[in-house]
Amino acid sequence: MNLKKRLSVAALLAIILGSGLGYATYSLIAETPAEKTAVKALDLYAQQGGLGTGEFGGVFEQNNTVRLSAYLTIGGVPINRIEVTFKIRKPDEQEIVNTVMTDDLGNAKLDFTLPIEESALGNWSVSATATVKNEIVSDSMILECQAEQIMPPVQRTLDLYTQQGGFGPEELFGGVFAPGDVVRLSAYLTGDGVPIVESEVTFITCQYAGIPVTNSALTDSRGIAEVNFTIPSDPSSAGNWTVSAVAYFENETVDDSVFIGCETGEEPPSIFALIKRNGELCVSFNPLDSVTIAVRVYCEVDLLPLQVKLEVMLPNGTYFLNQSLTTDMWGGATTEFQIPMIYDALGTWSTHVSFEVGGQRGEAYNFFDCEPPEPTLDVFTQRGGQGQNVQSGPFLLGENVSLCAVFRVMNSSVVAGKLVSFEAQLNGATLLVLVAETNSSGIASVSFRVPPDPSFVGPWEVYARLDNGGMVLLDTLVFAVEQPQG
Predict the structure, then answer these.
(1) Exposed e or buried b for every residue in 304-337, given b needs 16+ CB within 10 A?
(2) Using alpha carbons only, what angle is made at residue 373 by residues 159 and 256, rounded to the nearest 5 degrees?
(3) What is the pLDDT of residues 285-315, one digit of tens each?
(4) Pairing with 40, which of 14, 123, 394, 479 sits 20 to 30 Å away (CA)?
């Protein structure tokens, strides 16, 4: 059978195994089992249990691959080339049926992966049946599917401080220095509370509205990276300086910032503000994000604490906040608010902090943007592929493939009732197109069985599409189809 014909047959025979459409299997090539003497014993088991008639097959987790084995013998002698039919009944009573031929050792084996959907949780009923010369022999067992235990990612933290202050994740003030002083910057890097050694940390120092200066250092056995920088001696170095430390990892960036003051003893009182999200400097937010405004006033110590006026304006120019803050004995004050989920929140916000003390006034303006997050569509299989354009794990000929697509919009909210199309291609030829609707979790899912024909071996490409108000969202996925071993 040529490839074109096989593709056409596969497209006609591929039956959706997804929700509401039932389950079925198909084969492009029907084989006649060889006749053998009467079957005496069939033992069904999995890799975690089930040896013996009707024994428990073990406990698995979502996304685990279950290997079913049926051992067929006559008088203890293995029997080959006999068809064994596996019936797998899910907790929701949907059924999967597959037929496998015993090998030379009398084993018929079938692998399947437990889905990640909540409906997979519970007991799965599995049976195996073989027929020889009108004599039927069978065995059954129960498998338990539990929720997948996902290891939490490593929680990395970076704490930047100077010899005068700033130690601790919430401390933003690194001290006051004079022109010509040497500032020692230290960054403490940890993962789940354990020091991370031999990792590069980049330090960025910048006078307000000035040109950033960058230095790097590796963390030592304590997880600490250190560099020195000298504040220029000329009077123009007086004022506020921002210092940041950044450590880059494969899928994550961690950083911390402090600000320091440089005084010559002749400067009037001044004020400085930082805009942060989740402890990090930020200039772009989304609705429902929390915004932290950290204020620092530089003045004579005997004038502290003092009152600071804070004004926060929406993009349309109206007041969102108009309040007073009281500094601590170091001149610091912090407040936090949440951006509302309203249309007027989109655009550029402005903040204004000011104070008056001893007949003198100080003020500072800051700006940040609020943008609607782009909607996303993410397609993956029961063997991985989460994320944009990420590859899934491989499948074997004859295995079932479950495709899932998650639709997310503003602030990662999910949307139900959206149609998602799934197109699978091999070598540029379309094998099938399936359509499903997102559920209350924003997930659309379909299933199909890879044909057992060797012409379907190779990299399969899946294209998931969703029409979101005239804008078509697309995510792609690639998985390899391989020949079973042996």
Answers:
(1) bebebebbbbbbeeeebeeeebebeebbbbbeee
(2) 10
(3) 888 889 999 998 877 777 888 999 999 999 9
(4) 123
Between the CA of residue 190 and those of 150, 154, 197, 203, 223, what are the distances in Å? 22, 10, 9, 17, 7
Task: For residue range 93-133, list pLDDT tens digits in order.
Answer: 889 999 999 998 889 999 999 998 888 899 999 999 998 77
Beta bridge partners of 126: 88, 141
For residue 54, what are the CA distances in angstroms to 125, 446, 477?
Answer: 11, 32, 40
Sheet holding 135-146, edge to edge: 58-61, 135-146, 122-132, 83-89, 95-101
Extract the runs of DSSP E, i.e. beta strands, from 219-346.
224-230, 239-248, 253-262, 270-277, 280-281, 284-285, 290-298, 307-313, 319-326, 332-338
Quickly tell me which residue has 């099938």 as its tokens.
432
CA distance 178 to 412: 46
pTM: 0.38
128 found inside a domain: yes
* Any domain includes 135: yes
- In this predicted structure, what is the pLDDT of residue 267? 62
DSSP annotation of 11: H
**Three-state DSSP state, 264:** coil
For residue 437, give its domain range: 376-482
pLDDT by residue (tens digit) across 396-452? 999 999 999 999 876 556 788 999 999 999 998 999 999 999 998 889 999 999 999
Structural domain total, the chain:
3
CATH code for the domain of 174: 2.60.40.1930
DSSP secondary structure letters along 14-80 = ----STTS------SS--PPPP-SPP-EEEEEBTTB-TTTT---EEEETTPEEEEEEEEEETTEE--
Reported as a single tens digit per residue, the pLDDT across 23-52 is 333 333 334 444 444 456 889 999 888 888
Asked whether residue 193 falls in the same domain as residue 165, the answer is yes
As given in the structure block, the two tokens for residue 133 are: 């010369």
What tens digit of pLDDT does each residue of 160-204 get?
999 988 888 777 788 888 888 999 999 999 998 899 999 999 999
What lies within 8 Å, CB to CB, of 194 at 6+ separation is 223
Please state, rounded to an integer, the average pLDDT across all residues of the chain. Answer: 84
* Boundary-marking domain end, from 328, 355, 370: 370
